[in-house]
Each structure stands twice: as structure tokens, then as C-alpha cells.
Amino acid sequence: MQGRWSRVVRTPLGLTATALVVLVIALACLGPVLWGTGADAVNTDDILALPSGEHWAGTDNLGRDILLRSLVAARPSILLALAAIVISVVIGMLLGAAPFVLGRRTGRLVSAAVNIAVAFPGILLALFFAVVFGAGATGAVLAIGLSGAPAFARLTQTLVAGIAARDYVAAARIAGVGRFRVLFRHVLPNIAEPLVVNATIGAGGALLSFTGLSFLGLGVQSPSYDWGRLLYDGIGAIYVNAAAALAPGAAVLLAGLAFNLFGESVAKGLGIPVGFGLRAPATTRAAAVPEPAVHGEDAREPSDDVVLDVRDLEVTFPGPTGPVLLVRGVSFEVRRGEAVGVVGESGSGKSLTALAITRLVADHGRVDAARLDLLGHDLLAPDTAVRRRLLGTSLAMVFQDPMTSFNPTRRIGAQLAEVATHHQGKTRREAMARAVDRLAAVRIPDAEARARQYPHEFSGGMRQRAMIGMGLMGKPALIVADEPTTALDVTVQQQVLDLLAVIREADDVALVLISHDVTVVGEVCDRVLVMYAGRVVEDLPAAGLATAARHPYTRALVEAVPDMATDLTRPLATIPGRPVSPADAPPGCAYADRCPLADARCRAEDPPLVAAEGSGHRVACWHAGEPVRPTEDLVETVESL
Length: 641
Prior knowledge:
α1 crosses α12, α10 packs parallel to α11 and α18 packs parallel to α19. The protein is elongated. It is 49% helix and 11% strand. It is α/β, with parallel strands linked by helices. The strands form 2 sheets. It has an 8-stranded mixed β-sheet with strand order 7-8-9-3-10-11-13-12, with helices on both faces. Strands 1, 2, 4, 5 and 6 form a 5-stranded antiparallel β-sheet that branches. The protein contains 23 helices and 13 strands. It folds into 3 domains: 258 residues, MetI-like fold (Orthogonal Bundle), CATH 1.10.3720.10; 235 residues, Rossmann fold (3-Layer(aba) Sandwich); 89 residues, no CATH class.
């Protein structure tokens, strides 16, 4: 971090801006001390004197030196402007973080209020609040502070939304960490830089606005004075003594330029977007998703060894023409020590199913199910301390991208230890010892030293193993791994998969492995769920994935993966067409347009997921198990016609 800031200062613009800011701050600190007595000295024999060697900018109507008064006025002008920007920052942060803390409904009202306020020009808001609070320094500070808060709230809201989507925030929520703690420990530290940069630029704007209010008579009142008040006094004599207005005007220009240039140079050097003061149009909020009908209660009680019980899971999001059902009617069980794989193309609903299970679906989405139980506890029940503790200790989530799985501003060990201190009542020392032990358990060498390092000091495979270690801080009964090997090379992929297998066997932990690679799922899992267009189309034992698959889509997925026996002289097998968008799902079977076995019934009726031959095998297809004619035969048939 220190190196990044030093690079900013070494640039010509950064060095110039830094020097100007230091000069302005020094002037504010030392001005009253050095020139306070001379600035207040009244000399009736030298009233309204023109600039001279004794008075470089002349004197006012009481014979006081205008230049000295301009130098002394630096302190109140800058202090009042900084007070106003602090108010803007604090209120803006509160309003911007409200949607994250308060949830969807209340947060939506706050966002709507911010959108309305942002639509008004800042100067109009400042004048409105100045009239409300009355003339004077206090009223002007409040007016400038409140008028700048909406733009800062918009910036904060955007930054918070970006960080809230990161995996390490989701991991903290799975661990049962409260929203306020997540906000202060994981979100705000990661948006500190852009907030500071934009606040610096905002200080220049606040200074100009405060000067304007004082010039209009709504700010500092006589006998006190700031640059705006001096500008007001000097403008009356501008045709006689232009320096009376130019001196405070130049001071305002210099100070405002210093803050703005410094903020711009830091933003450019650090690559931070500058958003303060930008009046973006109010965004159109998506309509709320109506309450879907609640499914009837499933009469069957779960077995004692069932870790996860899912019945008729549905996930709905608002769309441009109405609610869109992205996950529909998903039902399955995961027992102790069992590994269940979920496969399918991108957009099939795999990851969204995992997010629904872990209760991480975005606020504008809705999760509904006849049953969604973890160890017999209803995950759809209202949020309580008991449920947070359950999620934090009995459920572990391994995310797809190891780079975003950890908070980059905190050490690895501290992030793992947070689970133990928050849920297990351990002291910091005990929690850190547990974190080191868990890092060693997931085969991270020199775990004690590594615990003191930051995420960027870990390799991709080590970050993924550390993420698994975080899940093992408690005693998880279920691990949900959402494509945990996607961003890793093949060697590290195998290491991560072997680690998951060892953990599963050692502690009888259930595993839900989501992947687009049917080969990986077939090797690691006991059972496979194949998803297409948001629903499960086949549920079969992993051992029969290559030989016993009955759904045409499952067989197409298997055939699309080359192996050592693949004929290199022929084109690789592919699935024709593109996956169906859930928003445009056709009637009947969603796979019909890509299926070589589809007929009129397939395009009219959606097949139910029913038990096939033998136990533990379900398939949703009107032509389950029927052979698919080879592509060459189809081509010959078409040519003969």
C-alpha cells in the first residue's frame, strides 16, 4: 500500500498537488498565529487604501490589511469546508450502506430516496437547507454537508454492492456473521481508498460551495470572516481596488485546486474511479417479485442420516416482463458421507441451486421450497442466532474463484479465526491456534507463518485449500463446493479433489460438488444430478454415468468429453444448439429443440422426473433409454430424401 501511494507522489501532477495541499494546510494552521494580530489591527487613518508596499492588497473600510485577513481566513474557510465534507461522508456512508444492512424492502426505500435527492442539483439543495437552518456558519456547514450526502451515498451504495458480491462476504454470511460485522470487517475496509479519494475531491467542492454561501450572506456572519465573506466585502470596491476581491478569490481558487488536483492524481495513480459529485440519472428499480404459492408440506419425515433435504426448490428473480423461474422443482437428499455431484452447462441452474441451499441468493431473488432442511433445521425459517450458528458451524462453502474467496485487507489466519471467536466463544489466541491447525490439516506447509500472510501471498491452490480450511473451523456436516477447481491447473485440481475426499472419509462429511466436468463428478461423487434449464432431468449413480445414463442430454454431456479411446480422425462430439434461457423456456421439454429423439409430445408436455429401472435412478424424458441414431445415419437419411 505504501508503495502505491509513493508512486502517486512521484508523478509530476501528484507532487504538485501534494505540495499545494501541504501549503494550504500549513497556511490554515499557521495563518492566525503569524498574522492574526496584524489582520485585526484597525487603522482609521488608512481606510480603503490602494495596494502598496505596506499593504499589498490594500485595506478595507476599517483600514485592516486585506492580504493578512485573507491569509488568516484560511483556517475558518478550510475547517468549515472539512466539517461539511465530513457530514457528507458520514451521512452518505450511512445511506449508501443501508440497503446492505437493512435488507431488500427497507433498503429499497432508502435507495429510492437517494435517487430522488441525486436528481436535484447540489447548489439547489444547499440553498434549500441554508434557508431551513438559517444564516450563519453552523447552518451553512449543515447545508453543504447534507447537499453533498446524496452523491456520496450513491457512490457508497455502488461500492458496497460490488464488494457484497465477493465470495469472502458470502463466506462470512455462511459463517453466520451479522450484517453489521460484515460491513465493518469486510466491506468498508475494501472501499476505503475510493471513499478517501472522492472525499478529498469533495473537500474542494465543499470549499467552493461554502464560499458561495458566505458570499451570499448565508454563511459566516460579521465580525467573523472567511474567504467568502472577504470576497463579499471586496466586490463592492472592485472598480476602485480590484485586489480587495482578487486576494480572497485567489485563495479560494488555490485551495480548491489543491484538493481537486490531489484527489484526481491519487485516483489516477491508484486506478480508482472518481464518482463524487456526479449526478447520474436515477436508476429504474426492478419490480418486486410477487409471493409465489407455498407448496404443500411433504409428509415424509427425513431419515436420521439425511444431512440436506431439498423438496420442490424454486428460485425466482424479477424479469423485464415479470418474475422468471430460474430453478424449478429441484428435489434431492444428501446423506452423511455421501457425495452428490451436480452437472450441466452454464446457465442450467447449478450454482443458483447451491446459493439457495446456503441462503446466499441476492435480496431481489426469492427462494421457495416445500422443504429445505439442514440437519433437520428449516433454512427458510426467519433469521435467528441459532440458524446463523448452524450455518457457521455445520455448513462449509467452497467458492469457484479462490482469488475472491478471502478479504484482501485481512490476514488469512485472522479470517479463519473469526469463525471460532464468533461461534465457539474462543479467545483470540485459541482461535488463532485453531486456524493454524486447520491450515495444517488442509496441507498448507509452514501453517503458522502462512497464517500471518495476506491472500495475495498465497498461490491459487493454497487459497483454495485455505478456503476449505475455513469451512473446517467448525465441524461441518455438509460441504458445498461450487466448481472449486475451475481456476486451477490440473495438478492442483487433483490435489483439491483428493483433499475433499480425505475430509469426507475422515469425518463422514456430506459433499455437494457442482461442476461442468462430468468426468470429475463421475470420479469423486456417489450420485449425480444432471440439470438443464433450471430443473433436474436425471438423477443416477455416478458409477453408471458413462454406461447407464438414460436421458439424451446426459449421454450428450458424457460423449462431449474426449478420452483416450476417442478417434482423433473424426470431429469431436458436440451438443447442437444453445442452452435454453429460463426467461424464454418453451412449453414441453426444454431440451426438445436440441434432442434427436424429440417428437410432438416432447414439445407439448414437460416430462416429470420419475423413478426409472432400479432404485436410485430418476429421469425426466418421454424417450428415456431409447438409442440415439448416429449422426452419419441421419445425414444419409436426409440425403436419400
